[in-house]
Fold:
Amino acid sequence: MIMNAHNLAKRTSKYLVPLFILLALFIILAASLGSANLSLKETAIIIAKYIPGVNYFIDWRSINPQSAKIITQIRLPRIFLSIFVGIGLASAGVIFQGIFRNPMADPFIIGVSSGASLGATIGLLIVSGVNFLNLSAASIFAFGGAIAVTFLVYNISRIKSKISVVTLLLSGVAISALISSINSFILIFRTSDLAKVIFWLMGGFTSATWLQFFTIAPVILVLLIVSSFFMKDLNLISLSDERASQLGVETEKVKKILLVLASLIAAAAVSVSGIIGFVGLITPHIMRLIVGPDHKVLYPTSAIAGGIVLLFSDTIARTILSPREIPVGIVTSIIGVPFFIYLLLRSKREIF
Amino acid sequence: MKEKILTIKNLSFAYNGSNVLDNISFDVSSGCFLSILGPNGSGKSTLINLISKVLKNYKGEIIVKDRSLKNLNSKEIAKLVAVVPQYSNAGFDFLVGELVMMGRFPYISRFGREGKQDFDIVEDVMEKTKTLTLCKKRFNELSGGEKQRVIIAQALVQDTPIILLDEPTSHLDINFQIEIMDLFYKLNTDEGKTIIGVFHDINLAANYSKKAILLKNGMVFGYGEINNTITKENIKKVFNSDIYVGKNPFTGKLYISPTFNPVFEVPADSRDVKVHVIGGGGAASPIINLLYGRGYTVSCGVVNNFDTDLDTSEMLGISYVSEAPFSPISLYSQNKNLEFIKSSDIVVLPEIEFGHGNFSNLVSVKEAQELGKKVVIIEGKRIKDRDHTGGKAEKLYNKIMANGAMIIKDISEIFDKI
Structure:
């Protein structure tokens, strides 16, 4: 009986298989939508052409080269980039929520977003034009800023090699406020560039390229795999630091490792997308309701679900007011905030 | 001599600059059931946290099974020492089965997963802790007693020789307290687990443990067999409170109780008032205790040895006249009693049962009355029902009443009469 309840592979695949199917359907749907109207069938055939093993059965001549180009060069890079950013945000969210033992924590809670914003501002206004590893100056500086601020917050809240969750949260809020005001201060002197910065901050994938994708996706993937080996530890840490130590977790060490990994994941995601709120907060929460709190299952499923959520949001962002685009950060907030409030009211009833 | 499973040598631990534990040393032999007792802030929980290495940076040595804690990593320690804390509601609502399996963490490698052995142990322990049927329930749905059993199961699957208890029962109803303490008792006697527990409830500790350690201000005040450690004097010094230490007549185990003697402002002249209380069958104890508490000079007699009233007199250190157990009062004792009565101002006659053996006590009261002493009778049950002499005692009793003895219904009224 217990054997059954604990078969991890079975439990995980029970949720992962439907999620992957859903993701595949969303990819085809999203690739077919846009200003140039393509049928679902045509889209599916074009995508299938690139899947090894399947492409053997595809009749080349039925494909319109123009459509193929739209899909493979414009839509797919954007689709895959948004999926990976979604994966990154949701998985970082799971880790932060686990460490903080609070389902209301998100990847930006200890300053990733404010650091990335300041970095992006500097990148856009001061050193624009620099390129490194296929990434723009804004991306690189956003990544660096996110890491720097996280590091700062972390060190402030560290007391004799121990990190208190409450101090971490409070110093995160304080430093974020400070960094945001520095950001605003810089913008006062460059009002002409305000639009550029604000547009970046609202988040989006307008300029997504395969190069961007192939630079950031491996980073997120590797971090994701490394962190997945700490999910047993995270389960125990989510009980309490003390209990985790009693049960054999090197709590302080693992917390540090996970905080670094999650911050890196979040910073990598933010560097190519801008600040996209609520995906990292709400996806883990929904998945916890479905699969339960066991991080061994929650982590991979939330990651894929995060990809789906952000792809869905981005597709809405670029099609709903077509040909005009709205920043995806606005879409996630419009969907996310009511849901967040719903969760707050729910938890008010249940927990307090 | 049994093998030493835990040795603590010159252990000190400071928190925010002040010493919580101050140079303590003791060792525990394998298979012991040890209670750590002491007032709040004496360092009990700190000690538990140090032995489980939740707290580090201590001075001195903690040696578990011949290995210093300093040389062991978290997983190795978790295979030697398990902690049972008080349950607290989990933020994330895990399934009971998941929670218990978490106790196997030290046995599962980072890249591995639970094997058959882990499932077998989990199932076995869940059976033993009666949590198997809760396996697929969410933790937060459970009752307090069930939650505590799940936490115990989580600690037991660690399969450690030492189990530390951090007041695992103090927030539970008495039925759950007993159920859980019985479980630890069984683990101790049947499986030879060494159990070291912090308890608030000294009686609970005394019922189950073999040894006790008393902590005061971070130092070991006393350590040894439970009966030699929990004494009136030790408790007075460590907890600063007066207690009665006796034996539970039902189990024969050590049993303590507060003396329930609220501190009143003692009238300056009460020491000069001498009160003699007739004893017998424990009926005198409450009144002796009360009068003693108010500062009166109290004596008691005649009581047989092993009578509760004699224990009370001894506990409080007052004078008494005693007689061999189950023997009628001898003339010698009766005369001795009369001497006490003569030097007293007041004689109190509690609600005693009278037989042929102690009839002379009643005679003494009558004599006291004739000597002009104030006699106070505490009346509850009718004398008719307390008379086992065939009417002799009733007759004399009524005579004393008729002669102007003061009658009270409740012992607290006594102060109005004195």
